[in-house]
Queue: 4 jobs
Job 1
Amino acid sequence: SVLVDCDNEKVEEIRTKASSFGTSKRKRKNTQESVVNEQIKFVGDQLGKIANALEQFTVEWRWKDFMTTSYEVYLIIL
């Protein structure tokens, strides 16, 4: 770019505003990324809890199924 008959203070002011705008834009982007990361972490934690609950349910269901089958076999043997 070529500056023609321009006041250096005005040029510096424009540069400062442009720099400030870029910094603000980066801060907003970082804040948005931080919020998204927190949401991803929250969803991951919730999925972990769901997985643990399903695993516990499956173990209990298998145990009941095993006990029912064992009891039926016991009755057949008698």
Job 2
Amino acid sequence: MKLWFKKISVALITLMTLGMYIPPTYLDADAKEGNKDIFSSNEDVQDKDFVFSDIGEDNLSDDEDFSSLDSSEDYIQLFTDQAREQTFTKLGPRIADKVEDDFMMEVFPGMEEVISSILEDIDEEEFPFIEINEQKSSVNGEKIFNIYDKQSKEDVARFHVRRDLRPKEGYWFNFHYHLRDDNYEEHHDLGEIYWDKNTPPKWMS
């Protein structure tokens, strides 16, 4: 009798409590949030991969489009910088301090243009074989610098400066260059700068 009563009691209690327990809503919310985080993180990864792939493709195309232009501009800039430095070294501080502004306005733009023109006529593959010869200039001679071709072992161009004494005027500095194309015979003028009636100092002094 007692055993039968216990079985009935257990069955009644089970029926009475069935459906009364409801899991806390925050557990379901947390689960949904977790799923959202998973999906959003996956979407972020996909978006980032897409962005990175686009950036990589853009950079590659830019490099292909502008690599040759940047290379030629770099060489021209390098050569013109060296040309300016070599010219001031040739003139020396005593002369350069007085004529620097005139040189930069009257002569250097033409020198830049000539150097650019020379390099533009040379194939890009040959650029590494072209250099400015930085051997020391003569104290009394005209040489400033030469643009030298290491493959042919010839000067492509020779840049000079000459002191001219003109009656009743004084001394002028004549800047010019010679080209391999005409066997260095022609004087191609770059410009002139007036010094003074007094004799200028020696070069590089």
Job 3
Amino acid sequence: MSAKSVDSSTPNVEPLESRRTLSVLWSQHHLMVLGYIRSVVIDFHMADDVLQETAAAVAEKFDDYDSSRPFLPWVLGVARNKILVALRKNSRDRCVFDEDLVSQLADTYSQLDIDNNEAQEALSECVSTLQRRARKLLELRYVRDLSANAIAQATGTTAGAAGVALHRIRKALKDCVQFKLGEAMHPGGDA
């Protein structure tokens, strides 16, 4: 039996393995990509659209990705291109970033990935210290991806109250993470 007939009778494993690899890489980096997009695209809905367009483009172009190189800079490059397209379409908006700044932000986010594991550990520790209600609000917003209105409806509050609560939670988490990262850099030292 020739190799050709074996290949045609057996399922092609490469595309399945490629999809698995993409799934793992995307799940590891999508929050960093989202953070980058939201740091440039002010409109929340537009940022989500750009993230979806980025994910689709990454899936479409994944065969072109050089696996010997880091994934994050490559995916941020794809995101940068999608951001620039979105910003050009909406150039009449008053807050539009120039292309150099968008590129600099992508470079910065690539460098941030180095410290990402420590930050994720710190964030996880900080989230675990939150009260149950605060963790529930975070889950509704970031796991279930609900809007402020939907969160308000689910929790029996107003959208404004939900937004303020989320803002306070994010600030508390930011302060906690910064403290923990500072503590990691200077263990046992005077703070």
Job 4
Amino acid sequence: MRLKSRMTTVATSAAVMAMSGMLVVGAAEVTTRKDSGNKAAIVEEVESTDMLIDEVANVMPAETEIVKATEETEAPTEVQTEAETEPATQEQPTSAFAGKFMVNADEYLNIRAAADENSDVVGKLYAGAGGTVLERGEEWTKISSGSVEGYVATAYILFDADAEYKANEVGTWKVTVLEDSIRIRKLPSTEAGVWGLAEQNDVYRCTKITDDWLEINYDGEIGYVSTDYAKVELVIGQAVSREEELEQIRREEEEKAAKEAEAKRKEEEAKAEEKKIASASKFVETVQTSAYNVSENDVYLLACLVCAEAGYEPYEGKLAVANVVLNRLNGGAYGSTMSAVIYAPGQFSVAASGRLASVMAAGPNSESITAAKDALSGTNNVPNYSSFRSCGGANYSNYNNYSIIGNQVFYN
């Protein structure tokens, strides 16, 4: 009689992957048994086997010594030893990608109706896509992916372990929550803080997988959900049929045309609004009033304000800014001196920002000086306006009357 010893180890595995359009990865391939009843049964079985080994020690001493040495030196999670009279059949591990393939091309791979490069193209497999092998051949392989079935050049696809490696390299892991109100932890611990709650069927991008926790992207933060309440899947691309590709092209062209039409509509609306605003702008006739009797310091201050507020505007704009200051001075609401009007709180922004001080230190340009002196001589091109601002920030509906000069609007 020959005695054989067969040992089977059951251990926790990493995620299991199976692909049907996408690769589904479970939390564990096999779960380690931990109940005490099983342990007792195993111990009893091992002891019983030892007794059998002792009984046949005289017949097969060498084999008995080997069995005992193995039991003493190896300590798997669970070991089952049984005596057999027939040789044990060794089970070969099955790859999770057995019968699957991945594209090994930079852009895309044509799927043809027949195993012939001249046959019709029925679909495409873009980089990162995969599917099921139906018939594997040396030159052509029949495959199924998405809604497409056909033939691809064998040289441009990967099989089995190579396909698995490629899928892990280019695929995207996603986590789907299986129950309601699952806590998303800040660290992989039940004692850690909570970012928020996830509901059943919520989906997140997975960035790391461990035995107990799945690391996810949660609103830009790193979060963790327990593997007890979520499943993880490896998602890869699928084939696109010829009809699907044409439909996608049609949709993209429609979206492009719609965006262009919307942009044109907005442009036309803006032009119409500009025309409306321009047509409502009042033409103001320049009037000649009495000259102002002011000091040289006031002339310089006014010229500097004009330069700070309208340094890049045309001469008419500079003259209008100077006259707004003088109109306020005449009204008396903002003060009775040039300095009081210009430095009145909340009025001329350049006075508060430091821009006016910079111009006063460097000196105004010549056109600003000319505009200030012309306004002080009595030339007024905005006799009824006491305010102005840039056209870009104007709210024309709030103005009783206004005139646009250059890039500024003058109003009351």
